[in-house]
Amino acid sequence: MLGFLWRFNSFKRTNTILQHLRLSSHTDAAEVLLERKGCAGVVTLNRPKALNALTLNMIRQIYPQLKKWEQDSETFLIIIKGAGEKAFCAGGDIVEVAKGNQKLTQAFFREEYMLNNAIGSFQKPFVALIHGITMGGGVGVSVHGHFRVATEKSLFAMPETAIGLFPDVGGGYFLPRLQGKLGYFLALTGFRLKGRDVYRAGIATHFVDFEKLGMLEDDLLALKSPSKENIADVLETYHKKSKVDQGKPFILEEHMDKINSWFSANTVEQIIENLRQDGSSFALEQLKVINKMSPTSLKITLRQLTEGSSKTLQEVLTMEYRLSQACMAGPDFREGVRALLIEKDQSPKWKPANLKEVTGEVVNNYFKSLGSNDLKF
Fold first, then answer.
1. pLDDT digits (tens, 9 = 90+) for 325-358
2. Does the pLDDT at position 17 exceed 70?
3. How far apart are the first and last CA of the chain?
4. What are phi and psi of 152, to 5 degrees?
5. 233 is catalytic
6. DSSP class per residue in 81-92
7. Pick the catalytic residue: 96, 160, 217, 320?
8. What tens digit of pLDDT does each residue of 92-119 get?
9. Which end of the chain lies in a sparser environment, N or C, as judged by fewer CB atoms within 10 Å?
10. Catalytic one among 92, 120, 132, 308?
């Protein structure tokens, strides 16, 4: 849910984006634009100065409008995009959530996950133009739709373990379904994918040169009563014409066999041991990253993906809502936000501070049913 720029060898590189995400969520301009254009309903996340970070207010506007468009016989597809050129959506509004009381954090996660599910089960073609930074909550409002269009400026990551959270918004559903153990690697390390690699990893369904994105949108809007196939044809045409980085191999291609081996382990401790034993510069780089993460986050994330691999999206979101509320009650989320966002000392003091103290019982408590407070669809 919460996205921010994360680089494996430096916390400092995050600061620019974190500054954006610290901006207040209360502005005079409409935070989200909901427009009927041509054959489509168009959602524009409209907080460019805050990298289009998602607020509860925005979620509460988008959800009912999507439901209306789903029933409207004149609306044939949905397009969702971000205002400005820097970001599609850098995640949920971290400050809003971290400073919120229990009532707000319950509402935020509950309604955000309801929106994720609405997109995942949407009855009409759903096209997300994921140009620029797409992290956390931004992934949640795009990846579950039918079509996701990346550009050379796309930047994907699920960096939540660095702030004491976990890759939510249905991360437990889509991440374990990526090739091999790629999703487990992305979830535990927060590794960033850029440009065409977002497509090669399977996050995006199409890749289009940024300069053609406006034309693509116009062509989609101009379609007359289009079917899903008509929309796919237009996207495919643009995709085939894209030349940027066409011949460049996937950034993780040379490492995939090792990633599949390392991250096949059943425990975080064994993954760490696998990286340590390998000893290559790439393995040690990932080891350094993982060692900075919240030990609790690492353990609940590995179990989240393992369980999520055989669950439906709704079942995953129900599980993730339980995790979200347990994280809000625990110390690591607010400590992570303090260390990386507020005081910026880049030295979170995790509790527990090591993996050994995160026992099976501790992990089990994160997954416990909330009874009548469980997320239901």
1. 999 999 999 999 999 888 999 999 999 999 999 9
2. no
3. 19
4. -65, -15
5. no
6. EESSSSEEE--B
7. 160
8. 987 778 888 889 999 999 999 999 999 9
9. C
10. 92
Asked if residue 9 lies in contact with residue 48, where contact means CB atoms within 8 angstroms, the answer is: no
Rounded Cα distance between 92 and 86, Å, is 16
pLDDT tier, 22 (very low <50, low <70, confident <90, very high otherwise):
very low
List strand residue ranges (DSSP E) for 240-347, in order: none
Quick check: is 132 catalytic?
no
> What's phi and psi for 212, nearest 5 deg?
-100, 0
Q: What are the structure tokens assigned to 56, written together?
A: 């509860």
Active-site pick, 120, 136, 137, 145: 137
- Check if 160 is active-site: yes
Non-local (6+) Cβ contacts of 10 within 8 A are: none
Does the annotation mark 92 as catalytic? yes
Q: What is the pLDDT of residue 9?
A: 40
Encode pLDDT of 143-175 as tens digits: 999 999 999 999 999 999 999 999 999 999 999
Bridge partners (DSSP) listed for residue 194: 155
Catalytic residue among 31, 96, 112, 168: 168
Query: Per-residue pLDDT averaged across 311-315, rounded?
Result: 98
Q: Which of 299, 295, 288, 293 is nearest to 265 (CA)?
A: 299
